[in-house]
Design brief:
alpha+beta; 9 helices; rod-shaped; binds adenosine-5'-diphosphate
């Protein structure tokens, strides 16, 4: 007795054309029994009947066997072999479309003739192919009575109608989807147009805004120039009468003039003091107006800091009248800077005068150091300091820190704006770092003179 292949479900031999119907019916039955879905049953049956038809051409028989493999993925396999060798090329080209009805289709040469192998994976819903189940399937197939070709034609017609129905339903679905897509496209286009319109509108707004801004900045420049011109003229005009008042006051209190009463003397001194304050304000205003009007042309040369520091040491030391304050001007150990000696000395003088004015005790120190290609000059004091939120405001014209009182003299609030303006003209920068009660450091940065 020969050992039976445990995976074999059915084997049969086709001899005549009507056997094609039998193969078709059996294929559908096998497919149903192993658990393939209705559509897949039809696919397999159609594939097999087409292959069977081609295999019988020019031959006398073809053997068909159905096996179910449970190794890894459960799969139904069909093997067909005929008596005509070398049909590989002919069948290969004819089976292209049929091959799509199953998962795999291979054509090759067998022992007696041409072999076609087909396989179709079983769905996960299919019942497990246990040996008992395999036995049941075999028994079911053995008991299967093939119908007549007419019966088969009826079944085929039914399947064709179902397939056509499905195609129609799919076409309707497709038409509906297309309509939806068109609708969506129209929506997207409308949105796109709306966005484009809005963007254009915004762009127009931005352009108009820029034009307005340009116009405003022209107006602002004109206003600033007018202000500088006005300040320059007024201060220039004021200088002569104020100087005259100071001169007259000096004359009145001169020992060669008629003696004034004590009261008169005090009043004339008050007039002279006020006139002096006014003159320094007028002078500051005139300086600032000139700087802003671009009337100051710096004379850029190699400036020896030793000379500048020496002059400042000499002229400012007399202003330090409090013994609690140490006035230190370091020897500059850096090379020369490229700058205007007079303007630079003026900036440092302003910074040092401020430091002396706002330092009740401790020290005021001027020093220099090299930072990369620049030279940094700093005026550091241990005075009252300036709150950080006012660091920019002190560079505004006439601004004075509320509650800050100079220890000597008065202020105009024009020294720092003027110093910063001069530094810009000199191609440098003026910065402050300070906080209340911690003292202040004003730093001037200038390019070092090329060696
Ligand atoms: P002013 O003529 O009043 O000194 P500035 O423009 O030079 O005008 O300074 C503006 C204000 O900044 C001063 O009134 C003072 O309140 C503050 N300030 C400037 N330098 C110092 C400093 N070294 N320490 C403390 N406060 C300072």
């Amino acid at each position: 007795m020969t050992q039976r292949d445990p995976q074999l479900l059915l084997r049969m031999r086709m001899r005549a054309e009507q056997d094609i119907f039998v193969v078709r019916q059996l294929a559908r039955e096998v497919a149903r029994l192993v658990g393939l879905e209705l559509q897949d049953q039809t696919r397999l049956a159609t594939a097999l009947s087409e292959v069977a038809r081609l295999m019988l051409v020019g031959g006398t028989y073809a053997d068909v066997s159905f096996t179910a493999s449970t190794v890894q993925v459960p799969t139904l396999r069909v093997r067909m072999e005929n008596s005509v060798p070398g049909g590989e090329a002919r069948l290969g080209s004819q089976l292209g479309v049929v091959g799509r009805l199953v998962d795999r289709m291979e054509v090759g040469d067998g022992d007696t003739g041409t072999v076609v192998l087909m396989s179709r994976r079983l769905p996960s819903s299919a019942p497990a192919l246990t040996p008992d189940r395999m036995e049941d399937i075999r028994a079911g197939l053995a008991a299967h009575v093939p119908g007549t070709p007419l019966d088969e034609l009826g079944v085929q017609n039914q399947q064709l109608i179902a397939a056509l129905e499905e195609v129609r339903a799919q076409r309707d679905d497709l038409a509906r989807l297309n309509a939806e897509l068109e609708e969506t496209n129209r929506g997207v286009m409308a949105l796109y147009h709306q966005l484009t319109d809005e963007m254009e509108e915004t762009n127009r707004g931005v352009v108009a805004l820029y034009a307005e801004l340009d116009e405003k900045s022209v107006q602002l420049r004109a206003a600033s120039e007018a202000k500088s011109r006005f300040l320059a003229n007024v201060s220039h005009e004021l200088r002569a009468p104020v100087t005259a008042i100071i001169g007259l006051g000096r004359l009145l209190t001169d020992s060669s003039s008629d003696k004034l009463t004590e009261d008169q003397g005090r009043q004339v001194e008050l007039i002279r003091g006020s006139a002096s304050d006014l003159l320094s304000l007028v002078n500051d205003l005139l300086d600032l107006a000139k700087a802003e009007a671009g009337k100051i042309e710096p004379n850029l040369t190699e400036v020896d800091l030793k000379v500048v520091f020496g002059q400042l040491r000499g002229t400012l030391r007399p202003l330090v009248t409090r013994p609690e304050v140490e006035f230190i001007v370091d020897e500059p150990e850096v090379g020369p800077v490229r700058s205007d000696e007079v303007l630079l000395a003026q900036v440092l003088r302003n910074l040092l005068t401020n430091a002396i004015k706002f330092t009740p005790a401790g020290s005021v120190r001027l020093s220099a150091r090299r930072v990369d290609d620049d030279i940094e000059l700093s005026v550091r004091d241990t005075g009252t300091g300036i709150p950080p939120e006012l660091h920019e405001r002190i560079f505004e014209e006439f601004y004075q820190v509320p509650g800050s009182h100079p220890l000597s003299g008065t202020g105009t609030g024009l020294g720092l704006p003027y110093a910063r303006r001069l530094m810009t003209i000199l191609g440098g920068a003026l910065r402050v770092s300070s906080s209340s009660g911690e003292g202040s450091t004003f730093t001037v940065r200038l390019p070092a003179a090329p060696s």
